[in-house]
Amino acid sequence: MNPVTKGGLWVLSLIVLTTTATGCVPRGAMANPGWTVLTAESGVVYTVLSTGRVVALDAAQGNELWSYPSEQAAKGGLGCSLPRTDSENAEAPLDAVYGIPVLTDELVLVASYDHHLYAFERSSGRIVWDFAADEAVIGGATVYDGVVYFGASDHRVYALDARTGESVWDEPFVTGHWVWGAPAVDENRVYVGSMDHYVYAIDRQSGVEEWRRSVGGSVPG
């Protein structure tokens, strides 16, 4: 092996090691890209790309109405797929998204692997609020009567005011393991499955457990 080739392999190995250790990946790539599907309403199509950009397209022509972050902000350099903090660049892409974007009259709700649930303004793409769980939010959210319900990998189920992102329950409901699926909600209860093999029924107003049933296997969705 000639010195140039040997040196090139050493540099490549260093880059791979740094990427693995720090979570830094080239901008436009993502170590954990996730997957989601399109959501459409009132002439607009919403989706999340594997690069972490949230995009709104005109349903009639396909023109981009807005994106978050903007295409320019998403370009160039090295990026890091790390959980966000309040001090980080507000234009940083989201981490992996697995759940379907959920719409209210004014918001697009997107759950992310970076521990956050984001509420984007439908008309502009501006972040109205975001809520941080302790671990990744894998599933999507469910909106019922102005309240957003979702679970996370921190074993918890949350209920938030859709307009403000403030907690509705006194405290999150705690299961025995990860909650990966979006809750089902009716007039009285919130129903969630957990990887602890249980399905839970939670009082929708108070967040207090009404019953649980062992189903003999993990409930991922």
UniProtKB/TrEMBL annotation:
<dbReference type="InterPro" id="IPR018391">
    <property type="entry name" value="PQQ_b-propeller_rpt"/>
</dbReference>
<dbReference type="InterPro" id="IPR002372">
    <property type="entry name" value="PQQ_rpt_dom"/>
</dbReference>
<dbReference type="Pfam" id="PF13360">
    <property type="entry name" value="PQQ_2"/>
</dbReference>
<feature type="domain" description="Pyrrolo-quinoline quinone repeat">
    <location>
        <begin position="51"/>
        <end position="215"/>
    </location>
</feature>
<dbReference type="InterPro" id="IPR011047">
    <property type="entry name" value="Quinoprotein_ADH-like_sf"/>
</dbReference>
<protein>
    <recommendedName>
        <fullName>Pyrrolo-quinoline quinone repeat domain-containing protein</fullName>
    </recommendedName>
</protein>
